[in-house]
Write the structure tokens for this entry.
Amino acid sequence: MISAGPFERYLSILGVEAAPPGLDHLTRLVGAQLMRVPFENISKLYLRKTQGAAFAPSLEEHLDGIEHHHFGGTCYANNPHFFALLQHLGYEVTMSGADMSNPDAHIVSMVELEDRQYLVDVGYAAPFFQPLPRDLDGPHEIRFGASRYVLEPQDHQGRSRLRLFREEEPIHGYLAKPEPREIGHFAVGIRDSYRDTATFMNVVVVERFFPGRSIRIHNLTLTESTPDVATVTQLADREELVRAVEHFCRIPSNIVREAIDGIGLEGDIYT
């Protein structure tokens, strides 16, 4: 029996069949990605500890992690592989960089479809279940729990600014730039994201989306959100954190325990 190619395997994991490019199909792909593939850095911590990793996993390794351990990844894994899937399916898509505290610290996709431009970001731990329109006349807003995401109209350089507000306080965001980039452009940023002092080496964050709700684990804080309300629970200790990650994301407890061993649980991904 001939095994399916990696993109056919990817589609099978998402539960979406291949189809000609179209907004309905793209929306199905984006929604399936968010609900099947979590945003998490457990896999990043685990790969660094067990393999000395300082690189993003290959597509095959990424799919293995999803299927065997219920991994997902941060933007450096989730967004480039989703970009490659869209490209394989025939979408007119560009991989682009986005500035955060540093230039090109984030990766997004920009899709030209049916005479419109869309921002696709499945690596920001955000409820972007649909492609976000870029050809805006005014701000495009998404509310979910205590968070409000605002995508602003393009500036004179064709850049799109996204702002995240929580409890109406501005806490994060990025500036997405339209210039095409190859994954090699981000090699230094990917390598640096594994340094001892890097954000994702000093924090635990897991965000999993379900129909109509999300679960966010940030160190010892568990936030359960619906579009209308957010409920916050403090986890007692590391072992309760391990159990919560396994319960909500099904990442095996022994992997979680090994990954977070020695992590201070004091970092903040928004600083």
